[in-house]
Design a protein that fits this description.
By secondary structure, this protein is an alpha/beta fold. The protein contains 12 helices and 8 strands. Helix 5 runs parallel beside helix 6 and helix 8 packs antiparallel against helix 9. GO terms for molecular function: 4-hydroxy-tetrahydrodipicolinate synthase activity.
């Protein structure tokens, strides 16, 4: 019996942060919930639209069910304590069956998540035809107590690349709220945004990085879920808001600085990202640890990140000192 929400929720436009998962520097590598709460407070005070827990950046494939629930609960509690009713999105990254994805959606709803971000199963990629993927998302959405967001990320899904026709068929489902394009395809963002104008749906199209934030917005996209918001949430949000206000010159200047740093972050992979967040936010050194078997961040990656992030970190601290926050926080 489907338990999907009877009143569809709209995924708000804006900047979202796919947050990291922090681990204690012990043999067991239990969750470091203290640093997690500290990071949630930093993000909650910045004015971004919301956060994504246990996505790809959050090493979700290394987490168990209870750990996922703990992280969502702490995020929800921290945002509430700050007085921020921002959007909490839970990833089901790593789940390879319809059944497990539904279980994780129910878990996430139980502890306060607003949406679930879901990758298509990919262990048997040859079997995942467009019809199979459509059935998968529809079955999960029918049973999920919170709306579903499609997660298009061929790089972690055995190359599965969902086309525009499939996305638009899914967009009309009342419990499928949007898509994150970590396929980095601005053409898809343009096609989907144009086609959605003729459909009775509130489906929200988001990019998967800030490298092309303004490009995505210019063709109808509604924002981005970007790892750069872990370091520079105010800068990302300000670029978004300036562009929306028609101040393209100012938006381009900030977006360029963000993009240069994002290129540096991307070169280091997940470990470069963790080091950048730890170093730029002055977190404990253990915050840069991945859950084993991920290796330690290399000295070369550290040097590269240090150079790439010097300018954007200084700008973010300047915005913070000025008391600048995004409109999403002001609205709350």
């Amino acid at each position: 019996m489907p338990v999907a929400t009877s009143t569809p929720k709209t995924l708000p436009a804006g900047i979202y942060c796919p947050t990291l998962t922090f681990f204690q520097p012990t043999a067991e590598q239990d969750l470091d919930l203290e640093t997690h709460a500290r990071h949630m407070e930093f993000l909650a005070k910045s004015g971004i639209q919301g956060v994504v827990l246990q996505g790809s950046t959050g090493e979700a494939v290394a987490l168990d069910r209870d750990e996922r629930k703990q992280m969502i609960r702490v995020a929800k509690e921290t945002f509430s304590r700050i007085g921020n009713s921002g959007t909490i999105i839970a990833g089901t990254v790593g789940a390879q069956s319809t059944r497990e994805n539904i279980i994780l959606c129910k878990d996430a709803a139980e502890v306060g998540a607003d949406f679930a971000l879901i990758l298509p199963p990919s262990y048997f990629p040859a079997m995942m035809t467009p019809d199979a993927i459509q059935s998968f998302y529809e079955d999960v959405a029918d049973a999920s107590p919170i709306p579903v967001i499609i997660y298009s990320y061929p790089g972690v899904c055995s190359g599965i690349n969902m086309d525009t026709d499939l996305i638009l068929r899914l967009a009309v489902h009342p419990n499928i709220a949007g898509i994150k394009h970590t396929d980095h395809d601005v053409g898809k963002i343009a096609r989907e945004s144009a086609a959605l104008k003729g459909l009775q749906t509130s489906f929200t199209v988001l990019g998967g990085a800030t490298d092309y934030l303004l490009g995505g917005l210019s063709v109808g996209g509604k924002g981005a879920i970007t790892g750069m918001a872990n370091v520079a949430p105010r800068a990302c949000a300000k670029a978004f808001e300036l562009f929306q206000a028609g101040k393209t010159t100012e938006a381009l200047e900030i977006a360029g600085e963000v993009s240069k740093a994002e290129w540096g972050m991307g070169k280091g992979g997940i470990m470069g990202t963790k080091y950048a967040v730890q170093k730029c936010n002055n977190y404990p050194e253990s915050a840069a640890l991945g859950r084993k078997p991920l290796p330690l961040v290399s000295a070369a990656t550290k040097s590269h990140v240090d150079a790439a992030f010097e300018s954007i970190t200084a700008f973010e601290r300047q915005l913070e000192k000025q008391g600048w926050v995004g409109k999403s926080l002001v609205a709350n």
